[in-house]
Hints:
By secondary structure, the chain is α/β, with parallel strands linked by helices. The chain has helices at 10-22, 33-38, 55-61, 78-92, 110-124, 140-152, 169-181, 200-211, 222-231, 236-250, 260-265, 272-279, and strands at 2-4, 26-30, 45-49, 67-70, 96-102, 129-134, 154-157, 163-164, 188-192, 198-199, 216-219. It is built from 12 helices and 11 strands.
Amino acid sequence: MIxxxxxxxxxxxxxxxxxxxRGSRARAAFHSADKAAAAALPAGITPVVVDAAEPASLRAxxxxxxxxxxxSPATPDLSRHEANAIAAAQAAGVAHxxxxxxxxxxxxxxxxxxxxxxxTSLRQSGLAYTLVRxxxxxxxxxxxxxxxxxxxxxxxxxxxxxxxxxIDLRDVADVIVETLTRPGHEGQxxxxxxxxxxxxxxxxxxxxxxxxxxxxxxxxxxxxxxRAMLGYGAPEWLVxxxxxxxxxxxxxxxxxxxxxFARLMGKKPRSFDDFARDHRHLFG
Length: 284
Ligand SMILES: NC(=O)c1ccc[n+]([C@@H]2O[C@H](COP(=O)([O-])OP(=O)(O)OC[C@H]3O[C@@H](n4cnc5c(N)ncnc54)[C@H](OP(=O)(O)O)[C@@H]3O)[C@@H](O)[C@H]2O)c1
């Protein structure tokens, strides 16, 4: 039995769908009881409600579970909530934990620090583990920019001409399911990137081609970005973390291209053009 945390999220929902397609037995953990009740899950997958801040809910969801997928949203609670999940997995005798982490996994930026603390908890737990470290998702363009691309044909970031080797989160989910369902991934850390590092200007040009309408990348000052994001109601920790991440990208910290996906999956990762073509209906 596999427990998938964050089943309503970007990655967790794709992991649940793939486990369903494979006919795996799994529990899909939802934070909200309403989402758990409304979820249309594949056969063999049952919903459960978990609050990672509440160890008792994790322990209950882990009864009889042998493999656990850990994901937390990007909040200041990430490492504390994941430590709770790891402690509950130890108590339940879970055989293997797969954690969604971030690429690059080092402490020189806010999100990296949170994930490094969590990676350390998992390594020190004595549990068998796999770290799936993903670079920025291509789907961030949908989640963060689709609204402004639909309304203004533009998106804004304080990223100058940074190159980023974005990865399609469908590929991230494929690797997570591979590591959850096949042996041989214990003790491994997988740095996942897309097939090339592109600037946001190049991403805009590719979206323009796929959408058949002009899309422009607007480089903005960090202070202006922060003011706008706070105005939309984004939490300050997240906005500061995003600005810090763009600083890392400007310094070249997210531009490397790895062959990890191809080695693991025996095929090329999806390109930004693949992503743009498959998601063009979401950009208007
Ligand atoms: N965005 C990127 O480019 C990128 C790249 C690499 C790594 N990451 C990492 O990916 C992670 C986020 O993954 P994602 O995009 O799949 O997340 P997401 O879409 O924000 O989903 C988070 C999930 O966690 C659930 N959740 C929230 N609070 C919870 C709690 N207290 N207890 C239990 N579950 C809770 C949410 O449920 P509700 O829907 O009910 O709130 C949701 O299902 C972060 O750790 C981030 O650092 C992101």
